[in-house]
């Protein structure tokens, strides 16, 4: 069963969530930074607390990601994994792709799929 989609916009980050049985799809659009990371952290925490531990995050429309945003992603990868779930990143490109490659954090995620040109 798929539940309704909701959209939440904070500063310059749009977070769209679709929930199904134990899974969730999250689409990010805009900037994931110090100002917007708390909103994503809240959404991710709510998903995991509700038992949605298999999460796919579509980052194709993410324009920017700083260390605050990256930390939220890594933190919730760990939390999902502790509950037997996974966190996958799709559409990875631009700044996020570069940061994941340079830091070696790409290996911290269950799956990282880069955007197709």
From TrEMBL:
Residues 13-117 form the STAS domain. InterPro entries: Anti-sigma_ant (IPR003658), MlaB-like_STAS (IPR058548), STAS_dom (IPR002645). Signal peptide: none annotated. CDD domains: STAS_anti-anti-sigma_factors (cd07043). PANTHER family: ANTI-SIGMA FACTOR ANTAGONIST TM_1081-RELATED, ANTI-SIGMA FACTOR ANTAGONIST TM_1081-RELATED-RELATED. This is STAS domain-containing protein. It comes from Nonomuraea guangzhouensis. The lineage of its organism: Bacteria, Bacillati, Actinomycetota, Actinomycetes, Streptosporangiales.
């Amino acid at each position: 069963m798929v539940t309704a989609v909701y959209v939440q916009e904070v500063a310059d980050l749009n977070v769209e969530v679709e929930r199904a049985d134990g899974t969730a799809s999250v689409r990010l659009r805009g900037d994931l930074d110090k100002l917007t990371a708390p909103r994503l952290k809240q959404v991710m925490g709510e998903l995991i607390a509700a038992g949605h531990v298999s999460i796919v995050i579509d980052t194709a429309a993410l324009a920017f990601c700083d260390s605050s945003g990256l930390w939220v992603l890594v933190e919730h990868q760990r939390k999902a994994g502790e509950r037997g779930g996974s966190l996958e990143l799709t559409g990875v490109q631009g700044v996020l792709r570069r940061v994941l490659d340079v830091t070696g954090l790409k290996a911290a995620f269950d799956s990282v799929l880069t955007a197709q040109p």
